Amino acid sequence: SIENIAAREILDSRGNPTVEVEVLLDDGVLSRAAVPSGASTGAFEALELRDGDDTRYGGKGVQNAVDNINERVVDELVGIDASEQRLIDQVLLDLDGTADKGVLGANAILGVSLAVAKAAAASAGLPLFRYLGGPNAHLLPVPMLNILNGGAHADSNVDIQEFMIAPVGAPTFREALRWGTETYHALKSVLKERGLGTGLGDEGGFAPNLDTNAAALDFITEAIQKAGYTPGRDIVLALDVAATEFYSDGSYQFEGEKKSAADMVAYYGELISTYPIVSIEDPLAEDDWAGWEAMTDELGGRIQIVGDDLFVTNPKRIRKGIDTNAANALLVKVNQIGSLTETLDAVELAHRNGMRCMMSHRSGETEDTTIADLAVAVGCGQIKTGAPARSERVAKYNQLLRIEEELEDAARYAGAAAFPKYKG
Length: 424
Ligand code: PGA
Ligand code: ZN
Prior knowledge:
Its main location: cytoplasm. There is one protein chain. The chain is globular, with a radius of gyration of 21 Å. Strand 15, helix 12 (about 370-380) and strand 16 form a beta-alpha-beta unit. By secondary structure, the protein is of the alpha/beta class. The protein contains 13 helices and 17 strands. The strands form four sheets. A nine-stranded mixed β-sheet has the order 5-16-15-14-13-12-8-7-6, with helices on one face. Strands 1-2-3 form a three-stranded antiparallel β-sheet. It has a three-stranded antiparallel β-sheet with strand order 9-10-11. It has helices spanning about 65-75, 85-95, 105-125, 130-135, 175-195, 215-225, 260-275, 290-300, 315-325, 335, 340-350, 370-380, 390-405, and strands at about 1-10, 15-25, 30-35, 140, 140-145, 145-150, 160-165, 235-240, 245-250, 250-255, 255-260, 275-280, 305, 330, 355-360, 380-385, 410-415.
């Protein structure tokens, strides 16, 4: 059972404070989890509690969330068996008592929730993916490597936030990571040859200024070929538009022009006819339900349409999306909803209703690798955790290498079956 819980303020990959939690069990097991943080945060996400004290970290300190754990949560959870995850998460939700977790802070609740799971796994002598996923956890996800960053994750003029490559043709996760990483390096030389910037954005992808968003897809296609792979067969493409970021007063400010939802859907239709794109995330804004329905109606038969800011990993919003056919896939971010139990509920709801799921990091990350295990535990077949560069991104991919090795012959790489078939 839980003997003690202790939290502290640490730094994330952008140099902003975040919450780290340690859980000590009475059998001597000590486990630790750290909480990520977004930049293009959805308006409907659970509340990330920040101190707002301008004398520390520009108001971004998380000392109050830390105090909430050390002074309030500990007393409620000491003595409970760490394997009682659902019960423990319910105690946390009840103690907070609000829909957005604004009293304790979703960052406080999630840190405890994840650290408890890790402690329970260690106490049972099981790797986290096995503890959470049971005997059937064996599917290694396709790494969606974000190799060109724009939007809120870069200072460039590129509107689309993430340009990802998915090495679906590889036989194993290890090979997929190699193919993707070789392409990442090839992209650097493609950009260099043209005198474009090769500085990195928040998620480790290159962040050059470009004439159009499609130019990014041209350079990436060239990089795939330069690395010796075939676009559309070995490696396919995916986007996270993060359209909420350039939406205001009912229209989209894209490539210097004012566009309607219909204009955007038509644009995406052209893109997927030109490039081997299998997945588009947040093509429309988080409030534009009608736009999402039109998008899924027109393009949902050809590609995966992923709700991130639209769903915020919240079963209520996912339910609405299912009922209105607003998207056909769910982006899964543990800190959007703020507890492990609710995250697992969100994935189950999506899967039961025929939606694919993509496990995801945040643009602000730490060395914590929980989402790698979680992706294998739920068998979702897709994970996005940035470029194959910068240790807070690579830590998750490296953990998946370890999991694949541990599974030996039982490991299966999700590959092309993780996505709708690209027809070209
Ligand atoms: P965020 O970006 O972590 O800054 O919200 C990631 C995403 O939009 O998927
Ligand atoms: Zn997103």
